Amino acid sequence: MMGVETRCIASLRFLSKQYETEKLHIQLATDWFLNYNVSQMRRDIFQAIADPTRRAIITLIALQAMTPNALAENFHITRQAVSKHLRILTECELVKQEFKGREIYYQLEIDKMKEIDEWIEQFRQIWETRFNQLDELLATMKKEKK
């Protein structure tokens, strides 16, 4: 027959193992849920470039690949905030990571920038057409005044 202390210790061990198992199950479920939601709710590139800080980051890394610390030196925000912006830009595939030793360098993903340019191009053509029509109208009005 087991003593009271032995039974208490055995019960505590059993409860501890169950707690760790439940904690692991909760952690796995949470990880799955977060990963599922992230993959289902991807941001698009226009959400990424809507933020002025992210546009500034894009401008900086267009010149050269930079680490998060190097980027943070250019802003009056924390390094964690810069990392959050970089995470969003990475999710949208506007920047890519390159590992060099212990450092992570971020560089611009040119193909995604072309996607933005193609979308904007349609509006550029509309406005150029309108400006050309305005130029013609002004030239006609100037001739009529003479």
Q: How does the helix and strand content classify structurally? A: mainly alpha
Output the radius of gyration: 28 Å
**Largest sheet composition:** 2 strands, antiparallel
Task: Write out the strand line-up for the largest beta sheet, numbering strands in chain order.
Answer: 1-2
What can you see in these coordinates?
10% of the residues are buried. A two-stranded antiparallel ribbon has the order 1-2. The chain starts with a helix and ends with a helix. It is mainly alpha-helical and 146 residues long. Helices cover 74% and strands 8% of the residues. The chain is elongated. β1 and β2 form a beta hairpin. The model has no long low-confidence stretch (mean pLDDT 82). The chain has helices spanning 4-40, 45-49, 52-63, 68-72, 79-91, 110-145, and strands at residues 95-100, 103-108. It contains six helices and two strands, in the order αααααββα.
Summarize this structure briefly.
With 146 residues, the chain is mainly alpha-helical. 74% of the residues lie in helices and 8% in strands.
Detail the topology: elements first, then pairings.
Layout: H1 4-40, H2 45-49, H3 52-63, H4 68-72, H5 79-91, E1 95-100, E2 103-108, H6 110-145
Antiparallel strand pairs: 1-2
